[in-house]
Amino acid sequence: MKVLIDTCIWSYALRSKHQNFSAYVEQLNDLISAQRVLIIGAIKQELLSGYSDVNKFEVLNEHLSYFENEVVIDVDYIEAARFSNHCRRKGIQGSHIDFLICAVAIRLNAEIFTTDKDFDFYKQHLPIKLHKLVNH
Predict the structure, then answer these.
(1) DSSP for the chain?
(2) Nearest by Cα to 82 from 72, 96, 70
(3) Tens digits of residue pLDDT in 88-116
(4) Burial letters for 86-124: b for 16+ Cβ neighbours within 10 Å, e otherwise?
(5) pTM given for the model
(6) Which domains does the chain have, with CATH numbers?
């Protein structure tokens, strides 16, 4: 099964040398090796927005170009809005990007790899699948 990688996981791999995140980085590396990784333009934009140094920006952009951008289609935006409204009626707030991630993942029958606890709340009301960290 393919796995849509959320921004936080990419950030651990790119910026953090902290031991607490090593299992997430190892899992990401395993998914990359297995060619199971998905990325969408909005996540790529979030990652690149964190690099104001032009050289670092270009290096990261080149590395991320290895991963084909999964196309976001009109129905994804409509579903994301529907999900946002549904969750808000249940008392759960979320970002537009989070709901877009959910919509794309559901359409592609992909898991979402994230440490963002908001997705645990979304999962109570949306048919998303969260990727579980596999112990090595």
Answers:
(1) --EEEPHHHHHHHHH---GGGHHHHHHHHHHHHTT-EEEEHHHHHHHHTT--SHHHHHHHHHHHTTSPEEPP-HHHHHHHHHHHHHHHHTT----HHHHHHHHHHHHHT-EEE---THHHHHHTTS--EEPPPPP-
(2) 96
(3) 999 999 999 999 999 999 999 999 999 99
(4) ebeeeebebeebbbbbbbbbbeeebbbbbebeebebbee
(5) 0.94
(6) 3-130 (3.40.50.1010)
